[in-house]
Each structure stands twice: as C-alpha cells, then as structure tokens.
Amino acid sequence: MSYLIGIDIGTSGTKTVLFDERGNTVASSTVEYDMAQPEIGWAEQDPEDWWKATCQSLREVIGKSGINVDEIKGIGLSGQMHGAVLLDKDGNVLRSAIIWCDQRSSAECEEITDIIGYGRLIELAANPALTGFTAPKVMWVKKHQPEIFEKIAHILLPKDYIRYRLTGEFATEVSDASGTLFLNVKERKWSREIVEKLGLNIEWLPEVYESHVVSGKVCKKAAESTGLKEGTPVVGGGGDQAAGAVGNGIVKKGLVSSTIGTSGVVFAYTDKVTIDPKGRVHTFCHAIPDTWHVMGVTQGAGLSLKWWRDNFGFEEKTLGSLTGTDPYVYMDKEAEQAQPGCGGLIYLPYLMGERTPHLDPYAKGVFFGLTAKHRRQEVIRSVLEGVVFSLRDCLEIIKGMGIPVEEIRASGGGGRSRIWRQIQADVFKTDIVTINSAEGPALGVALLAGVGTGLYSSVVEACDAVIKRVSVQHPNQSLFDVYEKNYRLYTALYPAVKDLYRL
C-alpha cells in the first residue's frame, strides 16, 4: 500500500493528514497557534509557529499510523493564501508574517493602482489591488519599515515557507501565486512588468510550478525534525481554496463549492480566464493545468462564530470541556431553537473588513434589528445566517458572470454543521451536497502529490477515484420568502452605513 500526506497551514492551526492511495484517512493531527493583532485591522503570525506545528503534527501522524515512512510516496502542501513571509539572504525570517486578513495596506493598494493602472492590473493580474493580497503588504513594509525592506532576499507565501523548511527549495505554484498580485494569471508566470514598476526585485520571488509538479524533496535536517524519510517528494500543492476545491472534487464545469472556514469562499471551476471587471470576485489559476477558478470571499465567516464562542461562549466551552464535546455542537443546538429569520435580526460579518462584493477594508460587523425579545439563540443563528447572506453575495456575482452552477458542495468546518448547510440550501435555493471526506485542502494536496508521483494519471482521475457524494440537503421552499426578505434587508444595510465606517 502507498500513502500520501497533505499538510494544510491554516490560520488557526496546521493540520496534517495521512491518506492511503484510495483517499481514506489513516491518521490526522492538528496543532493550533495564535494570531497577533497589534492594532485594529492588523493580523500577523510567526512563521516559526507554523514550522513547529508542522513538525509536531507530522511526528504525531507517523506515530499514530504505525506505517513505515518508506511507504509515504509524496507530500502536498496547502495553506492560508496571500501572506507575506520575508526572508534575508541567509533564509532567516525578517519579521512576523503579515497574513491574509490584515487590512493595513489600503494606501498601498491605491499606490499600486496608480502605478500600474487599474485596467492594466486587471489585464495582467486578473484582480484589483486589495489589502488581502501579498503585494500591498510588501509595499507597506517598503514604506514603513525600510530597514527590513532593504534586507529582503526572498518573498514566500505561508505554505511555501514550510516547503523551504522541508526541502531547502524556494518554490511556489500557480494557484497560491495568483493571490500575490505579482502573477500574470492568464500566462501562469510572474509579471515582470508589475514587479519592476513597484520597485521590487523579481529575483526575490520563487520559481513557479504547476500544482502537481514535484518542487523538492525532504532534506536531511527536516527528516530529523519530522520523522519523514529523507528524499520524500514534495509537490507544488495549492492555496487553501484551490486545494480544498480539489479535495471537494471541484474539477469540472458546473461544480461549485461553498466553504466556511475562518473566511468563507464560493469557488467555481472554469476552463477559461473569466474576469469580473469590477474586481468583486477573484480569478486565479486552478490547481489543474490550463484551468482557472473564480471565487468570492467573505473575510469573517467561521471567524464570526469563533469570535462569538471566544467572547460570549463561556457556557458552551464549559459544557464542552466537561463532556468532551465541541462547543460548536452546543451552539448549533441553540441556533436550532431559533426561528429562521431570527425575528428580523440581521448580522453583517465584516469583522475584518470585507472583500466580496464591497472591497472595503474599513467595513465593520453589525447586528441590526436587535430587540428586547431576542434571545441568545437568535443572536447565534443570526451569525450563521449573516455569513450565508455574504456567501450568497458571492454566488450571485458568479452566476452573473455566466459561470454555470449545477451543484454546490459544502466544505470547511462550517460544512460539518447540519444547520449551517441547511441555511445555505434555503438561502441559495438549491441542494447542498456533502462528500465522503471532510479533509478538504489536506486531501486535495495529497491527491496532487499522488498525481505528481505517478499514483494517478491526472487530477480529474484522482478525484473520480476517491471522491463520492454522500448526502444532499434540499431547500425548504416554505422559508424562501423569509430569507429573501432578510437578504434584501442585508444587502441594503452596507450602503446605508458604509460612510460611517471611516468616522
């Protein structure tokens, strides 16, 4: 039997999963870490925490499985996108990584747009300059921390820093590179024009591979730290969304995923470069050669429920610790006690600004319509509903671009919640499907590793062999009017308050 490993460097923790060649989970380990917010809207992490979590989770997975590491044929890497990991010429980290949800670089976005030109930026990078992307973060360091900027020799994304520690190679792949604003998305290579016009050095950027291609092999030092066999191949992998899409089988026309992780993403496959001229959704390279994807992003999806749990969920956390039950299970049960629509209580999930459709780093979260009649369960349910309203914003734009939507598959932590899936079915007015694996990005990059090492002939073949539909939740037509009314109110709230966010 051959085995594959998928490593997903997430925002809240690193998850490592060992799969057999049929896609079955053999062992899994997650190691959590913190996110620092030095100022409102800022978000940073220490790359060393990612590496420690990777080493620990690999050792735990190998130990749990009891397999011979010689049987591990390949490793795939996934991770949070858009982060800026800056290294000096010796490969040392120069500062904490500024990660995807950081909003400090709005002025740099304007500067980049002025330098490149909005139309030219869309033409080259397929996206406007947004605070979430890597380029504005690097430009912020250039302006505000010149003593660090002058030492830069390498710019890496989070998963690619782990690749460097595992293999000693500076490399990335097309799906994650698409979210830097440095990549020519149509041609699937770095844009020298963008990089040089911004006063950066293209030599700082790593080599770009297709996602299934072997980009390096586990080095001796990493083997000693992780328990892996020296020489084990490591493939390009994918940004968490492209990787999760592969792990969810979103590799053909008509298939769409709705993922609720820390952020929320509606992801659609396309075999041609399809761009929203307003830049409200992202067009990136998919993890399959000569294909692309369009995705809408809401910044504060699962983050919103985690914020509630951490700040107001004392009872649920206490019950969870006493019973060995995830606190989110109790929160789901509370939300089920509330009537759909929550008596008009609407939540805007803009805790870290917002991308789709508003592109507004200044946006803030809002509870609207709160009355003395509302109870705890309505507030929790309104968070679930507000996140889904935001995901519907994404879905409506994708449909408007002419991209077919024939089946929606739920994934991410929120995809494991039956009530959250049902709310999606009711708000989207369409069936919500689950598949036989909930491992998402880790499975996706493990399959890419299987393709890169010859276990499968293509990504589509790998997905067809491993991924099966297991459940379908149908929309409740009796709730269409309730949710349509609340969604229309939801879409009216942001325009009504957006000017107040900057006060």
From TrEMBL:
Keywords, comma-separated and alphabetical: ATP-binding, Carbohydrate metabolism, Kinase, Nucleotide-binding, Transferase, Xylose metabolism
Carbohydrate kinase FGGY C-terminal domain: residues covered: 258-451
PANTHER family given in the database record: SUGAR KINASE, XYLULOSE KINASE
Binding site for substrate: 81-82
HAMAP family reported for this sequence: XylB (MF_02220)
Gene (name only): xylK
Domain of life: Bacteria
InterPro entries according to UniProt: ATPase_NBD, Carb_kinase_FGGY, Carb_kinase_FGGY_CS, FGGY_C, FGGY_Carb_Kinase, FGGY_N, Xylulokinase
Any Pfam family: FGGY_C
Site entry (Important for activity), positions: 8
Name this protein carries in UniProt: Xylulose kinase
UniProt keyword Transferase present: yes
Gene Ontology molecular-function annotations: ATP binding; D-xylulokinase activity
Family assignment from sequence similarity: Belongs to the FGGY kinase family.
